[in-house]
Specification:
alpha+beta, four-stranded mixed β-sheet, 6 strands, two-stranded antiparallel ribbon, 60s Ribosomal Protein L30, Chain: A, single chain
């Protein structure tokens, strides 16, 4: 009976895990997203008017006054009110470099091979991208900024060598200014490369 319960529990956990992931999506062996997941994360969102809230301006004479208050005219220039824009499509990845270096490790190159394929796919093919290099907070601020800039430029060089046009890629180093895990400034997840679709 105990063995049956354990087996059922494991089966339920497996089904839940599958339900929480995107259908057909699977992480590569290195834990980074596969090419199709990268495409989905970075493809430009359809431009629409869904972020526009239109407030019709009615004739004040036709509006009933709230109880206990006199009717008032809408402020001059009242019209459409725009909601804050949605965040740009972006993807954070752990791209491995040699320690204290801008030299890519083989597993880092494997992630960038998938990224190059994703950026050349139909969905984001015409988009421009910002490559952000991020470090953890160990070391001085100026050092981390230089290291992250060098690493983002190395990613840009690698992607250009794999067929991406230079005008589609910009590189910037952020150092430890935007930690992914501020509670643990030295954590590995802070050392990452973030790709942002600028369109």
């Amino acid at each position: 009976m105990q063995a049956l319960c354990n087996a059922s529990w494991r089966a339920c956990c497996a089904v839940l895990l599958l339900a929480l992931t995107e259908p057909g999506a699977a992480l590569a062996q290195d834990g980074a997203p596969n090419t199709q997941e990268m495409v989905e994360a970075l493809k430009p969102r359809t431009r629409s008017l869904r972020n526009l809230i239109v407030a019709p301006v009615a004739d004040p004479a036709t509006l009933p006054a709230p109880p206990g208050a006199a009717a008032s005219a809408p402020p001059a220039g009242a019209g459409p009110v725009s909601a804050p824009p949605a965040a740009r499509p972006a993807l954070s990845m752990a791209v491995r470099f040699d320690f204290d270096s801008t030299r890519l490790r083989p597993e880092g190159a494997a992630v960038l091979d998938r990224l190059a394929a994703a950026l050349q796919s139909d969905a984001p093919k015409e988009s421009q991208f910002l490559i952000e290099g991020h470090t953890d907070a160990t070391g001085g601020a100026a050092y981390n900024l230089r290291l992250s800039q060098g690493r983002s430029e190395e990613v840009r060089r690698y992607l250009m060598a794999h067929g991406l046009a230079p005008q589609r890629l910009r590189a910037i180093g952020k150092g430890a200014q935007e930690l992914a895990n501020p509670a643990e400034p030295g954590a590995a997840e802070n050392r990452r490369v973030r790709i942002v679709n600028l369109d």
